[in-house]
């Protein structure tokens, strides 16, 4: 198969490239290292691009900006891919407020450029879009919660297994990032339903793994582990540090994408996170990383939570598992921590 991956040097893009390159497919990566423009030198992903290029002769890199409509159309027309996995993004809630045009142009317009190119020149392609749980805005914060010793949890049986795909995406605070991603999410669904293209939106919980270039503004576990290893100060923003995230290893994301490609559907939407078993609060994450590195977390607490931040978010995996029963989480949380620690040590960028 010919597979185009956008954001191919980033966490998800690069995992997907190596996953399918190992299986001898032909991979075309699109990434202009805009993560460095967004987050500075710590967000530079070129090391990963070089790693992929040196390892996989069946991988070709395009230094292309998905905002460039003409170049996107030309690239897709030339390649005529069987699959497009769209993982390029401005991924930070907080950054979006200071760069609203860049955020919308990359996340919403960039996605439209890809979809329209597919419709014009590669209509049979399967289109997988990395959406986000921020499309639900802060509406999950309206669920009744109970405060436990180290975490918040749902105090409503309806949500004991997490948030489902029919949760409202309307009338809540999303952050500009959540709004641009929701625009793209709706477009992806629409190109499915309206034009009968095989599209799906994967509404990610916390996607993570050893190859993330975590920075304070994006990449929760990666940044938390890096801060532990360096001994730098970590700031907890609000909610008593008991805010809960469900974490999924990028490998399990790639494995799901493979299931979808083998048996695609039209205009689908799935919540894709680690589920309850892979969930942790910030305080629990501190304990887990300390156990592995034997280093104390150096942190401070700020009363002010991040705008629109979820207090407790756990993806309900019932729908995704019912459509693709062969898929499951294969990397448990403790193993994710271990791999992230090793990843930073291997890159030797902080220890
Ligand atoms: N990491 C998470 O916790 C998480 C959670 C939910 C959803 N997501 C979504 O998953 C996707 C992948 O996230 P990630 O963590 O791998 O992000 P990432 O920042 O690691 O990777 C994104 C890549 O896209 C590239 N890029 C950005 N703008 C571009 C442009 N204009 N043209 C070409 N390339 C461009 C960047 O250089 C970067 O390498 C994103 O859509 C993100 O919103 C991520």
Question: What is the secondary structure topology, with strand pairs?
Answer:
Elements lengths: L1 E5 L4 H12 L3 E5 L3 H6 L6 H10 L3 E4 L6 H11 L3 E4 L6 H6 L1 H22 L4 E7 L12 E3 L4 E3 L20 H21 L2 E7 L1 E3 L11 H11 L3 E4 L6 E6 H13 L5 E5 L6 E3 H12 L5 E4 L15 H6 L9 H15 L4
Parallel strand pairs: 1-2, 1-4, 2-3, 4-5, 5-8, 8-12, 9-11, 10-14
Antiparallel strand pairs: 6-7, 11-13
Helix pairs in contact: 1-9, 4-6, 6-7, 8-10, 8-12, 10-12
The structure holds nicotinamide-adenine-dinucleotide.
Rg (C-alpha, Å): 19 Å
Number of separate domains = 1
State the CATH topology. Answer: Rossmann fold
CATH class reads: Alpha Beta
CATH superfamily: NAD(P)-binding Rossmann-like Domain
Strand residue content: 15-25%
Helix content: 40-55%
Low-pLDDT residue intervals, each spanning 5 or more residues: none
Molecular shape = globular
Please outline the major beta sheet: 7 strands, parallel
General description of the model:
It is built from 12 helices and 14 strands. With 351 residues, it is α/β, with parallel strands linked by helices. It has a single domain (2-347), classed as NAD(P)-binding Rossmann-like Domain (Rossmann fold, 3-Layer(aba) Sandwich). Bound molecules: nicotinamide-adenine-dinucleotide. Nicotinamide-adenine-dinucleotide binds at residues 6-7, 9-13, 30-35, 45, 65-67, 87-89, 91, 106, 110, 130, 132, 204, 206-207, 219.
């Amino acid at each position: 198969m010919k597979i185009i991956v956008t954001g191919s040097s980033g966490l998800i893009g690069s995992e997907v490239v190596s996953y399918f390159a190992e299986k001898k497919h032909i991979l075309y990566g699109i990434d202009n290292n805009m993560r460095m423009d967004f987050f500075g030198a710590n967000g530079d992903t070129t090391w990963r691009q070089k790693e992929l290029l040196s390892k996989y002769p069946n991988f070709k890199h395009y230094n292309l900006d998905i905002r460039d409509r003409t170049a996107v159309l030309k690239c897709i027309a030339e390649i005529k891919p069987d699959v497009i996995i769209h993982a390029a993004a401005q991924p930070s809630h907080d950054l979006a407020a200071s760069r609203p045009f860049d955020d919308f142009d990359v996340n919403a317009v960039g996605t439209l450029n890809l979809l329209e190119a597919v419709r014009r020149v590669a209509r049979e392609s399967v289109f997988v879009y990395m959406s986000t749980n921020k499309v639900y805005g802060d509406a999950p914060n309206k669920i009744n919660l109970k405060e436990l010793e180290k975490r918040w949890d749902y105090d409503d049986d309806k949500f004991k297994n997490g948030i489902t795909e029919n949760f409202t995406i309307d009338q809540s605070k999303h952050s500009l990032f959540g709004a641009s991603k929701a625009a793209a999410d709706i477009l992806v669904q629409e190109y499915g339903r309206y034009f009968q293209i095989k599209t799906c939106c994967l509404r990610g919980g916390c996607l993570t793994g050893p190859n993330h270039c975590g920075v304070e503004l994006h990449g929760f576990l990666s940044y938390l582990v890096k801060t532990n290893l360096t001994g730098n100060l970590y700031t907890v923003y609000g909610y008593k540090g008991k805010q809960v995230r469900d974490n999924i290893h990028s490998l399990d994301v790639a494995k799901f994408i493979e299931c979808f490609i083998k048996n695609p559907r039209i205009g689908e939407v799935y919540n894709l996170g680690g589920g309850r078993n892979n969930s942790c609060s910030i305080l629990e994450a501190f304990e887990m990383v300390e156990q592995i590195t034997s280093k104390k977390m150096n942190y401070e607490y700020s009363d002010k939570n991040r705008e629109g931040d979820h207090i407790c978010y756990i993806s309900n995996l019932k729908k995704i598992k019912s459509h693709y029963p062969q898929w499951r989480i294969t990397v448990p949380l403790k193993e994710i921590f271990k791999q992230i620690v090793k990843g930073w040590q291997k890159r030797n960028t902080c220890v």
